[in-house]
User: What shape does this take?
Amino acid sequence: MIGSDSSINKIWQHHYTNGDSWIFMGYTVWVEYLGMVNVPAGNFDLCYFVHLDSVSGWVFAPNVGIIKSIQDNNDLLVLRDYNVEVPGGLQANKNFNDMLKIFPNPTIDKITLELQWQQHVQKNIISIYNIQGQTILQQPLQQEKTDIDISELAKGVYILKLNSNDKTEVKKFIKE
Assistant: This one.
C-alpha cells in the first residue's frame, strides 16, 4: 500500500505500476495494467484500471487521465472527445478543422501536414509540444504538404501549433 487519504492526488497521477494500492475516500483501491484501450476518442496504450472494487473503478490513459469510468461492470463515462490546453492559452480540439489538416491521426511513425489555404508558405512555423507544454520540435513549414517523422517520440498526445502571419492554428495528434 502506498498511501492513505492524504495521498488523494495519487488517483490523478498517470504513472502507475501494476499492483499499486492506496486508500482513497476510505476504500482500498488497486491498479491493474490493461495495455491498449479503445474508446470513441481514440486508442490509448499503456492504460491502467484503478479498481474501487472488483467491478468498479476508472480506466486511465497516460498523459490524458480518465478515459472510462465503470460501476458494477457498466460504463458510466466514456471519453468521446477532449480539448487540451497548450502554452499561451490556445486549445487543441480533435474536431477543429480550418487551416491545417493532420493525418493519419492517430499515427505511428509520421504525420502529414496539409495547408488548406493559399499563403506565403515560407512564413509558416510549426511547433510540436508534449502534453506538459514542452517544445519537442520547431521548424518552418516550407510546403503546402509536408511529412514529419515522429517515430522517435514516445506514445502519447501531442499538440501541433501552426503560426502563419496573423493566423494561428492548434491541433492535437496521438502517437501510438
Notes: The chain has two domains: 5-78, 83-175. Residues 5-78 form one domain. The mean pLDDT is 77.
